[in-house]
């Protein structure tokens, strides 16, 4: 009479079987007091279960937002990972110095040099030589462009914007708009045309529209 002999299990097979049994039994290993995602009401009263989320829970594990904390930090009072009290007030932020050198505290250009204004405000889209560009959109060339012969055409666009170009009426005064317009007219196109602040004042509306007409 032949007897059946069970095949011997390799160590790898035993690990796989053990892991599978652990997963199957682990589903029911929690205590009765544990609130699960599937449990939507209180076991005794039937009232909706309140699942409170502790924003500092991950901190107890020693890692918070991917930043590992020291033992001393773990024992400190709960706090945000960014020390809000250490962040300076907006108008006292030292990183704004470079911004304020260019725009001042009034969020407006301070220079009256047409070339500087162009390179600070226009060249990012229309390029430094005024050649224009293609990219996320179309940025028309300002150099060698016959439309630039009309200073009032440029002034009107700077004040009111045009399609995707924003207006600069709040960031430049009349003298500054005149200066950058003259730079485009003369330096980028070679037209002999003087542009004055009075030219700009003629087109600047006394009461600006409530919305940007360029949008």
TrEMBL record:
Q: Could you list this entry's UniProt keywords, alphabetically sorted.
A: Heme, Iron, Metal-binding
Pfam families per record: Cytochrome_CBB3
Source organism, top-level taxon: Bacteria
Which InterPro entries does the entry mention? Cyt_c-like_dom, Cyt_c-like_dom_sf, Cytochrome_c-type_DH
Domain Cytochrome c spans what residues? 109-188
**MF-aspect GO terms:** electron transfer activity; heme binding; metal ion binding
Q: Output this protein's name.
A: Cytochrome c-552
- Name the gene that codes for it: cycA
């Amino acid at each position: 009479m032949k007897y059946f002999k069970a095949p011997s299990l390799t160590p790898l097979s035993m690990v796989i079987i053990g892991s599978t049994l652990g997963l199957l039994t682990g589903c029911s290993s929690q205590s009765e007091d544990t609130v699960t995602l599937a449990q939507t009401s209180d076991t005794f009263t039937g009232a909706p279960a309140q699942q409170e989320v502790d924003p500092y829970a991950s901190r107890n594990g020693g890692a918070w937002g991917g930043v590992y904390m020291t033992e001393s930090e773990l024992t400190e009072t709960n706090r945000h990972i960014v020390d809000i009290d250490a962040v300076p007030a907006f108008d006292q932020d030292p990183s704004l110095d470079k911004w304020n050198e260019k725009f001042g505290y009034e969020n407006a250009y301070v220079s009256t040099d047409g070339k500087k204004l162009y390179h600070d405000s226009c060249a990012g889209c229309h390029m430094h030589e005024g050649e224009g560009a293609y990219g996320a959109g179309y940025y028309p060339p300002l150099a060698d462009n016959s439309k630039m012969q009309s200073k009032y055409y440029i002034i009107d666009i700077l004040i009111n914007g045009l399609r995707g170009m924003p207006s600069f009426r709040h960031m430049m005064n009349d003298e500054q708009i005149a200066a950058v317009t003259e730079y485009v007219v003369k330096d980028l196109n070679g037209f002999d045309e003087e542009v004055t602040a009075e030219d700009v004042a003629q087109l600047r509306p006394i009461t600006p529209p409530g919305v940007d007409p360029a949008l």
